[in-house]
Amino acid sequence: MPVWLREHSWRQTLTAVHLSLPLRGARATPASIFCSEQYLKVSIPPFLFEAVLYAPIDDTNSTAKIGNGNIFFTLYKKEPAMWDSLTLKNVDKEKLQYLRENAILKAQEKAKEEMEAKKITKQEHKKYALEATMKLEEAERKRIEDLKEKERQKVTEELELWKNQHTDGDKYKSIQKKRELHQEIEPLKERKNEKLNKIQIPNEGTSKTRLKSTKGCSCSIFSQNLKEEQLPAPRAAATIKVNFTPRVFPTALRESRVAEEEEWLHKQAEARRIINSDLSELEDLKEEEKNPDWLKDKGNKMFAMGDYLGAVNAYNLAVRLNNKLPLLYLNRAACHLKLRNLHKAIEDSSKALELLTPPVPDNENARVKAHVRRGTAFCQLELYTEGLQDYEAALKIDPRNKNIEKDAEKIRHLIQGTMQSS
């Protein structure tokens, strides 16, 4: 049976009622108080206080403070007036039961309305976050397109400049060749004119002898001298085609990097095979978006904004495109930890550790994160021994990390406490 609290003190003003209720050593919490427009109840087992107020109050703005062994109520009146008493007099059980049930129903309806309002607000916030993300992605995509367009224009201008320079060079070469040919022909013409002059004005003695010698010849005396020297035709311009050995790898061949080149070619072929495969997720993506690194960056942005499911989807698609990147599994493990998918977090952390081999200084930070995330998942599954092993492995890699050392010490205490209780 509850013990009814009869002792209380109250005072009033025109707009408010101040009520003081002793706790008698009991411990009260906000959940112990129920207040509506005309009904006030304080339930602190084994004590109980119940009152049907004289007039309605504003239960939204009214307050209750717990301290110094008392509960202090400040109840604001809906209509300014002075009350004759704190509670209604001569309230029978039926009316009290009606007021109690009515107050509970109104409280439930109010809580439901507040829950619906919170749900609507949450949906609006989520919609706003999605719109903001889409705007950021659209701006980033536009920025990339602008950069590509600028580069395209720059390359076009450089190509046009090169063509103009090439055309000017060809013109200059043709003019130079004409000048050289003209310089070669001029001396030949001068020599020819000199020979003709000598033939046209001979000596008297020489002319007689020449006439005698040419009596029995039907050809002209000028036939040999008048033969024009045949000049060779200028060389025809032509384009020499040079054929190079086809090569897929973008750099020059070096014997010391043949193994790396073959590995690169294998990865490129595998990536093209995956991209060209029938993946429904890739139908709406652009070519640059079918890149595991681009998807990884997108997942990182979603993780930073708290959209863990979206980040997991981005990492899943990136893993399907390239399942040899340990950072994809490591980042997806962090998302699964946030979503309480502990077994998946353990699987992704283990896969990341498999890919982070051999252990070298460059992947120390990634290996530490993988051990810590897998150890955290083990501890949340109450597998403290396995979790401690991962934390100790992380400490071996990074012994100066104080946070990991503190967490490992806490796990040791938990294991000791579990063993003592068993």
TrEMBL record:
CS domain sequence ranges: 3-87
Keywords from the named record: Cell projection, Coiled coil, Cytoplasm, Neurogenesis, Nucleus, Repeat, TPR repeat
An annotated GO cellular component: nucleus
GO biological processes: determination of left/right symmetry; epithelial cilium movement involved in extracellular fluid movement; heart development; inner dynein arm assembly; nervous system development; outer dynein arm assembly
Entry-linked Pfam families: CS
Major subcellular site: other
Keyword Glycosyltransferase: no
Ranges of the TPR repeats in the UniProt entry: 368-401
Localization (cell): Cell projection, Neuron projection; Dynein axonemal particle; Nucleus
GO MF term set: nuclear estrogen receptor binding
Listed Gene3D superfamilies: 2.60.40.790, Tetratricopeptide repeat domain
Coiled coil: 88-198
Protein name as catalogued: Dynein axonemal assembly factor 4
Species name: Tichodroma muraria
